[in-house]
Amino acid sequence: MKYAVLDFETTGNQSSDVIIQAGLAIIDEDMTVSRVYSSFVKPGIPIPPFITSLTGITEEDVKDAPDLDEVMMEMVPLLNDAVLVGHNVAFDFNYLQSALDKTGYLPYTGRILDTMDFLKILYPSLTTYQLGMVASEFEVEHDRPHQADSDALATALIFIKCLEELEQLPLLTIQRLADLLSGEDSDLAWFFDAVLEQRQQNPSVDQDGYTYYRQFALKTEDWMNIEPERSNMMDNPLEGVSFEQFMEQVQSSLKEKLPEYEEREAQNLMLKEVAAAFQEDKHLLVEAGTGTGKSLGYLLPAIYHSVKTDEKVMVSTHTINLQEQLRERDIPLLTEVVPFPFKAAVFKGRQHYLCLRKFEHKMNRRDFASPKEEVMTAAQMIVWLAQTENGDDEELNLGNRGGDFWETVASESDSCLGRSCPWFRKCYYHKAKHEAGVADVVITNHSKLFTDIQAGHQLLPGYERLVIDEAHHLEDVAGKHLGMQMKYFTVVHTLTRLFKDSKNGQLPNLRQQLQQSGNERAASWGAVIDGLYPAFLDVKEHWDRLAEAMFTLMPERSDAASGDPGQFVLRLLPHKKPKSWDDLLTMENQIYVTIGDIVRKAEKLLTELKEQDEQDFGSESLITDITGLIKDLGTERDALRSFMKLEDVNTVYWIEGNGNYRSKSLQIFAVPIDVSEQLKSYFFDRKKSIVMTSATLSVDKSFQYMIDQLGLQEAQAQDRLMTSMLPSPFNYREQALLVIPRDFPSVKGSVGDDYFVSTLVQSLADTAIVTQGRMLVLFTSYRMLRQVYDPLKELLSSHNISVIGQGMDSGSRTKLTRRFQGQQASVLLGTSSFWEGVDIPGDALTSLAIVRLPFQPPNHPLVEAKSERLQQEKKNPFMKLSVPQAVIRFKQGFGRLVRTSQDRGIVIVYDTRILESYYGKYFLYSLPGPKMEHMPLGQMVPRIAEWLDPENP
């Protein structure tokens, strides 16, 4: 086959826009690029400045360029007998058809393929499909992004990589893909058909390294064979070896392996502290700033302790990101430098693992809710099965709707057949659980720690020692898990998975299978299922009414612009229920009774079906899934009942919603006001040693706030608590300058007046010009971010500095951060989730602006309830709660700036309360010692320019 890879640069993406450059790369049958055609095109209209800044194509370039007629005359012969290929090909194809039409040629009628589809299917774990990023990932030269010839060539080389990858796949996988796509009348289906035909004509011996099972090619093997790491060693490798001796060996291996490795004072201190805490059965709070190397600071003592005493050590992180970083980066390094074999296993929440039984079932039934998107997700997963050993959803780049698909094939305890499942020996979840059982160190996350407690310690292997990284989140996560939260869709999903309509859903599927089974009782069972349908509709109708009624209880906020996330919040007080609460209780009672009825009848039916011996596997699988869903429905019914009672004075009850989606966005919460007692009884009283670490645990050089929040007072009184504040490895006085414009206007509430906003926009723009973009601006309210976004964009456009706004530009936090790093000059505006966990080392970030001190809104139900509790105890809620919380968040924000010992940058705090108020000093004293200066606004930009000038030591 011959391929023609096409790319156009245009004056925009409207139908009135025109082509300014054409690029075409021809791939011959031997899979090499035989020629690249490229030409500027005279547009006949001016090129917008933003297109020039994106592509680098100027009026000068196109001034003497050929007309579209001439260019098409050269291109059309190249397209003969070729398959057209493009990256997001629909865009270029539309321009091609319109150009052919304008210049009097017939439309193109050949086959069209999109490299996006190939990348998604063949590289399901790629984190981004953006051309430039993929090119650098594949080490494909792409020196002039957004110029047609460079883009066309890069796309061609990427396409060739995809075809090579396709050749490596086992025949079985190709058969599966061709079969899956055969239902689609598409060029992609035609292509996979052709590949399959070719492969079947020359069936080379299939590649080894795969397990073939039930018509799938898998990378994973039977997990029953996985043994503990040192099962063949007679003696303990640490017999008679002290921690210091062990560390000497490790550090000399590190120096050999990494020539740039240097011992850091802070890391050495941390290693000693953690080892001592384990040794002496004490708890430890250790604050370790960026650059300490804290993962090795706790992993090495954990490995030493675990191997030496044969006791498992549990490590818990808050984010899956950090869990992945430990798996991908830190553990492989330690495997090479620790002088004996050890095993560290990652174990996540069950819903992160694929259930192979459910996936097989879904494929065989082609049970797709939105066929076009779901067929694509299924294709990704068929290829992924031949690549993954963990079956963990974090490895997959599932598109927007992929999450819904995943929910239907994720592992769940209620629908697990255990040992009687034909997939049991290959099961990813049971493999992860088994590996955790035989590992020395288990890496899990905060959520799973609490799910394990709720499951009566059935999920995690037993442990006596625990390291909690990102420990400043522990209290939050504890509240969420020890309390209850439920969304409108929690109930709806369960209902619709059981019964969507008479044809779709697990119950109609079961009814159909019973009909086909020819069993004499099939008709009576079918009648029971039919009898359940009206009850489902009844529950859905009442739930809709209850959600609507709850949503209308929430006051319309006068300062909420539409589209503000979570703009409606209402706290429900046990002693002061809303007037109409009794009506709501009547609706809830109706739901309670009807679900009870469904659960009873369904359980009776399922028991009868399970007792029938001669079922085929299909029904057994379905019955298991339905049993699980019925159990979920019962759990949701009970959770709703306990919420509606509003009877526990130690719990905060509230509801939230969003103006755009109305009652569909309803969320209900019941969270303990204070989790310190529970943390104490589940963890600090029970476990021998718990190490808590984070870059932000202290406030004003003291750990007292954390000790109170986490329930460590008793451990402190009994001398079972060690604390340690590690020195920073960076020289902040040289590396960071903090400036405060002391005459900056102040602001009341979450929204700035015109004067405040215009002053802020002007100052941000002036600063961004001096720092050439590379600026992160942190807001505490999404509304203020929106007020700043457009005017700032306009001011900076003439300086070729782009502005990226969270919630304004589409994409997740990771995607926006990547875009920011990938562009030469840009300003990134972010709210709450950008204050931490965003890592932008090096030159990509030079300045950080903090618009307001990050106080939590005092009217948030949980903050309000905690404040009331403190007032009853005659304590000052502002100083005891609001200030410490804000300081910790402020330190997290500040921590975005300096990520390596080479980074240099400035921080601007626009909130003058940091100078004027009595509590401002707590914020400044908590920072790791940057140079601090305040000055009138007019002097700020010259001072920043002077400080950043490399000539100026």
UniProtKB/TrEMBL annotation:
One of its GO terms (biological process) is DNA replication. Its cofactor is [4Fe-4S] cluster. Residues 763-938 form the Helicase C-terminal domain. ATP binds at A288, G289, T290, G291, T292, G293, K294, S295. GO terms for molecular function: 3'-5' exonuclease activity; 5'-3' DNA helicase activity; ATP binding; DNA binding; DNA-directed DNA polymerase activity; hydrolase activity, acting on acid anhydrides, in phosphorus-containing anhydrides. A motif (DEAH box) lies at residues 469-472. It catalyses: ATP + H2O = ADP + phosphate + H(+). Transmembrane segments: none annotated. InterPro entries: ATP-dep_Helicase_C, DEAD/DEAH_box_helicase_dom, DinG, DinG/Rad3-like, DnaQ, Helic_SF1/SF2_ATP-bd_DinG/Rad3, Helicase_ATP-bd, Helicase_C-like. Residues 253-517 form the Helicase ATP-binding domain. Its EC number is 3.1.-.-. Pfam families: DEAD, Helicase_C_2, RNase_T. Keywords: ATP-binding, Exonuclease, Helicase, Hydrolase, Nuclease, Nucleotide-binding. It comes from the Bacteria. 3'-5' exonuclease. NCBIfam families: dinG_rel, dnaq, PRK08074.1. HAMAP family: DinG_exonucl. Belongs to the helicase family. DinG subfamily. Type 2 sub-subfamily. PANTHER family: DNA REPAIR DEAD HELICASE RAD3/XP-D SUBFAMILY MEMBER (PTHR11472), REGULATOR OF TELOMERE ELONGATION HELICASE 1 (PTHR11472:SF34). This is 3'-5' exonuclease DinG. It comes from Paenibacillus apis.
